[in-house]
Amino acid sequence: MLNTLIIYEGKHGTSKKTAEIVAYIFGNTKFCTVEKAPKNLEYYQNIIFVFGFYAYDTAKMIKSYVNEFKEQISIKKIGIIGVGISNFDFPKQLNEFAALLKRTEDISEFVEGELRLNKLSEEDYNSVKMFSKKSGVPFKDCGNFKTENVIAVAEKFIKIMKTPNLTMPNNLLKKEIEKFIINHNTCALATGIGTFVRCTPIEYQYYKSNFYIITEGGMKFKGILQNNNVAMSIADSYTTMKDVKGLQISGLAKIVPSFSEEYFEVFKSKGIELSALEKLSIELYIIKVIPQKFEFLNADFKKNNFNSKQVLTC
User: Fold this and answer.
1) How far apart (Å, rounded) are the C-alpha atoms in residues 126 and 12?
2) Which of 190, 195, 182, 201 minimizes the C-alpha distance to 251?
3) Closest by alpha carbon to 78, among 103, 53, 60, 55?
């Protein structure tokens, strides 16, 4: 798995909040202040720096840290997040980081922070007041920090920084995924719409590269009827990280029309004939899930020098 170190520097909490949200979304992370940042970076493949803007003091400690450990840092994937009211000074900061590392970052983004005067120390309050007077910027609360904006930034960073660098060929990965699917028969099916979310443990049939779920009905259909985006997960029982195996599937759900040709074909593939269906006292429905993306975590992949997590897009 790809591990990420997130180092933040800031006075008023927004940088910490940003770093924490990114850590939640990334997974396999350590986030800390620059004062507590590790000196040995061997364990991390990615490093993300998060900082607020404070005139000449912007990212002062982070830059000092980068300068001290630049040989270790420069060979990692590097992300930079600036948090502030204006991104005017952000390009200048990126140039300073590039000069220290003798290379540009892999990805960078600006996040709108917030300034709340009643939360400032007396020293910061006077500094901001003086800056406002000189610059003509109104001296008042400003900025609109939004969690969803940080999540969007984290998703952009994941696409660049969490892509496996030791990828398995698609044809081999597909075989491994299908072998895992066939060796199991139960998944957790997640459906939802708006604030409604449902996660149902249920048996599946893998047939012609699609998942078919036979069911008597239920609240999972509330989501499927209004939102055909679904997720599934299949996993071995957890023992240790040395042998962990789990598969996440993103896909599109479709209700197979009852008594259609496809409907009967699915039952026949399970050895159930039409005559048996006609004797049932209730209706059985079929949900078809067409896979769009597989995310497979398999510790065994490391034995063949691949990353333990692999992604296959259909």
Assistant:
1) 15
2) 190
3) 103
- If one counts every other C-beta atom within 10 angstroms of the C-beta of residue 183, the result is 10
Lookup: tokens for 244: 């962990």
CA gap 292, 76 in Å, rounded: 30
Token pair listed for 119: 């939360």
Cα radius of gyration (the chain): 25
The tokens describing 1, both together, are 């798995």
Which segments in the chain show pLDDT lower than 70? 1, 12, 55, 115-117, 119-129, 131-143
Kindly write down the DSSP assignment for every residue of 226-287, as one continuous string: H--EEEEEEEPPP--GGG-EEEEEEEEEEEEPTTSHHHHHHHHHTT--HHHHHT-SS--EEE
CA dist 6 → 46, 110, 162, 258 (Å): 8, 16, 14, 52
Helices (H), the chain: 14-26, 60-68, 70-73, 90-101, 122-135, 147-161, 170-182, 220-226, 261-269, 274-278
pTM, 2 dp: 0.76
Digit-coded pLDDT (tens) for 88-110: 889 999 999 999 999 999 999 99
Nearest CA to 151 among 179, 109, 93?
Answer: 109
Q: Calculate helix-pair angle for 14-26, 147-161, nearest 10 degrees.
A: 50
Task: Report yes or no: 256 and 287 within 8 Å, Cβ to Cβ.
Answer: yes
Stretch (H or E) spanning 185:
none
pLDDT at 136: 59
CA dist 64 and 288 (Å) reads: 55
d(CA 67, CA 38): 14
